[in-house]
Amino acid sequence: xxxxxxxxxxxxxxxxxxxxxxxxxxxxxxxxxxxxxxxxxxxxxxxxxxxxxxxxxxxxxxxxxxxxxxxxxxxxxxxxxxxxxxxxxxxxxxxxxxxxxxxxxxxxxxxxxxxxxxxxxxxxxxxxxxxxxxxxxxxxxxxxxxxxxxxxxxxxx
Amino acid sequence: xxxxxxxxxxxxxxxxxxxxxxxxxxxxxxxxxxxxxxxxxxxxxxxxxxxxxxxxxxxxxxxxxxxxxxxxxxxxxxxxxxxxxxxxxxxxxxxxxxxxxxxxxxxxxxxxxxxxxxxxxxxxxxxxxxxxxxxxxxxxxxxxxxxxxxxxxxxxx
Amino acid sequence: xxxxxxxxxxxxxxxxxxxxxxxxxxxxxxxxxxxxxxxxxxxxxxxxxxxxxxxxxxxxxxxxxxxxxxxxxxxxxxxxxxxxxxxxxxxxxxxxxxxxxxxxxxxxxxxxxxxxxxxxxxxxxxxxxxxxxxxxxxxxxxxxxxxxxxxxxxxxx
Amino acid sequence: xxxxxxxxxxxxxxxxxxxxxxxxxxxxxxxxxxxxxxxxxxxxxxxxxxxxxxxxxxxxxxxxxxxxxxxxxxxxxxxxxxxxxxxxxxxxxxxxxxxxxxxxxxxxxxxxxxxxxxxxxxxxxxxxxxxxxxxxxxxxxxxxxxxxxxxxxxxxx
Lengths: 157, 157, 157, 157
Known about the structure:
Shape of chain A: globular
CATH class of chain A: Alpha Beta
CATH superfamily of chain A: Hotdog Thioesterase
Number of domains of chain A: 1
Largest interface: A-B, 34 and 34 residues
CATH topology of chain A: Thiol Ester Dehydrase, Chain A
Distance between the termini of chain A: 34 Å
Number of helices of chain A: 2
Oligomer: homotetramer
Radius of gyration of chain A: 16 Å
Helix content of chain A: 10-25%
Strand content of chain A: 25-35%
């Protein structure tokens, strides 16, 4: 199962090349990740159970990210879709996978990027990783799928 | 051989957690990459030979990035050091490797992140990749070194 | 008559104080201004007739801005409303007025900021201001209203 | 007396028009203001006595800003100069004035923008403004000068 989050671009996400800047593409991931995984009053996604606001007992730290840019993205008014799923649930961490793409209603929809983020649950009191809870695992397990297959990763042999 | 670029943080690089945001860490890489590889009147680095400003015959596209966050970074007035070297020179692309760290003059210097970027040379007229020139290869070959060894990359087997 | 543009905040709009940063508040204005005044295929606002994309015959330059911050704004999932109207139509320029506020459906809605921007129509070929056309004036005149009354402007006597 | 802060541009400060974006110009002000007014271990400016880091007893809130853009600014490696002085010292607030310009060593130096910011001292415990102390006033009084004269401010008569 996958989560689809519409994300609004900002004209300023483009750089002097006239494309959404490579760094700002990771901003789109962050926006979708927060929308999908953080709890809110208006609970919209089953996965949205993390109370990770500053001051909360849990903080979510990004441990690693990997992104492949597949097509240049330019500003448009209509939101792009960030599709999210879970590549792996570890003891204290989560691998979130993404595809940034056009809505399926687009004729000839394009995938602009695929990416993954390792997110670590941190106990804010101790500053150390804390285990993923049973409740979290239950909420997330239905979204586990095949991790992103990065095409151009250079092996380090 | 490695290139060391001092990069000034901005207070606004920090997010509501009070650390330099995970996305903005990639901004630091972009700043250092441009400083190290783009040509300028005041030639400062042997590697700085790319004329990639909008309107130039060559544009540099980021094809992929990978980053591992090793320690939280907070705002300070003194610049951090972004250390750059080349992990691989391909036919039309370059793997740039980075470490974001304290200056060596710091007592107990910390490495905050290690990362790599694949940069593709694009012919702006045709919009397609163009081969790395002899001049470029000569300028860069002395900076080739062991690629970053990412610790937590999950194999996809 | 006023235009109401819902604008999505991003968590990263907040700075280390945990509020939307003073600079990013002006980003919200830019987003709403582009949405309200730039032409698009899916014409949504009568005022949206400017073709100001890079490469177009007209560019819109910001000549001045003034903003008063009235209450701290924090990240929320629901968009804030940027209300826009026109304070003055000049020969080649436009004074756009704004209020950033909660939706009227909010109990005890708050106004977070009021602002104004002077926008100049520039002919991209010559790089000089060009006159506002009859068509533009017709489209905009219905939105002219009382300019923002800034409370704390210090007179320069 | 005026304070001159060299500020490094980032290539990403430019937008799709190829100029430093109007919003990011205010970022340059923030960078210079923090550098000039916040205390640091390596005390560089007499004015730098505010301990306003998150967690400190004082926070500095921006109450209003006004900026006039005078010439387009493009990315360059050498820092621009942000010149700061004080237009007015109030009971609990400070009007900071700025000019963003080329170094005086430039042939035909350009002023890109002039601006002012009203900064309010806030007691973080109570969340209300607190009076400027004697020590602060002593440190700042030597930098008081004529406020910025904005050319195109429209009177609201």
